[in-house]
Amino acid sequence: MEKVPSSPFLWQILQVQERRYLLKEFPELVSCKEFSKVLEVGCGNGSSVIPILRGNKDIIVYACDCSSETLERAKEIVHSTNIFAVQNRFHLFFCDFAFTGFPKWFVCDSCVESFSLKQQEHSSDVKEGVADTSGSYLSRECGCCIGGVDFVSLIFTLSAVPQKKMSSAIKECFSVLKPGGLLLFRDYGLYDMTMLRFEQEKRVGFREYMRSDGTRSYFFCLDTVRDLFVGVGFIELELEYCCVKSVNRRKGKSMQRVWVHAKFQKPA
To answer: Which molecular-function annotation in GO is an example for this chain (predicted)?
Structure first.
């Protein structure tokens, strides 16, 4: 008789659909320097984390979510894979970043001040024609924090944040990125099929709806995304719609999906 899995979460492992398109859309996650750090915000069941860890055996992923149950599920699913050295490269923590911000062990106040001073010194040296020999300071870890991360990924996460909290949430992402670091963004676009399916009474704001489970869902246009990220200091690198027609052959239905793809950089 087949043994029943000891945890209900194990039944879901085979059902996780890895977001393998991430490495194609964001190849920097593969080509980055050794031991680069990624912060996956709103990790869910780990569907975004797994392809990142598979695609780069040297990358380190920090992942957070505002649900303890979801974190436990992600832990079991990710650790059940055959990913190289996953125990040492995958770190989970509880965080509702839109309301509490990220913990100080990502980057402490003294390091932020140090980064600012170094940037000022670098700007002065450039103006005076002095060669820069301190470029490695940004990658050093100190005893009180990890010195910031190289990437922040917001994959279908920001749309669940109340609209009035989005700007402060993005500022938090900006604060933990190293200068020159990238924010990788993908989320629901205007007129995605899920938006068109919402009933009018579920609307709670401008392009903002309430799901049956009490979570929110916002649908972005390009200008809104640009204003949000550039408004807190990011540099726009890529910003475009991604439109896909998905066909459910079993039900004989076609679905029009609209997502927003973007890359933003913290000034270096």
So the answer is: RNA methyltransferase activity
Distances (CA, A) of 233 to 159, 168, 252: 20, 12, 46
Order of all β-strands in the sheet with 216-218:
203-205, 208-210, 216-218
Residue 218: closest CA among 151, 169, 152, 265: 169
pLDDT digits (tens, 9 = 90+) for 60-101: 999 999 999 999 999 999 999 989 999 999 999 999 999 999
pLDDT higher than threshold 70 for residue 15: no
Would you list the DSSP string of 92-127?
EEE--HHHH---TTSS-HHHHHHHHHHHHHHHHHHH
Task: Over range 231-239, report the average pLDDT.
Answer: 98
Q: In a 3-state reduction of DSSP, which class is residue 129? A: coil
Q: What is the pLDDT of residue 109?
A: 82
Torsion of CA 236, 114, 93, 101, to 10 degrees: -70
Q: What is the pTM of this model?
A: 0.84
Mean pLDDT of the chain: 86
C-alpha span between 240 and 256 (Å, rounded): 16
- Distance, CA of 115 to CA of 117 (rounded, Å): 6
pLDDT tens-digit series, residues 194-220 = 999 999 999 998 899 999 888 899 999
Q: Are 34 and 58 in contact (CB under 8 A)?
A: yes
Start-to-end CA distance of the chain, whole Å, equals 60
Question: Can you tell me which residue has the tokens 């920001």?
Answer: 158
Q: Shortest CA distance to 92 belongs to which of 53, 54, 121?
A: 53
Residues 261 and 221: their CA atoms lie apart, in Å, by 11
Query: How are strands ordered across the β-sheet holding 149-155?
Result: 90-94, 60-65, 37-41, 149-155, 177-188, 253-265, 235-248
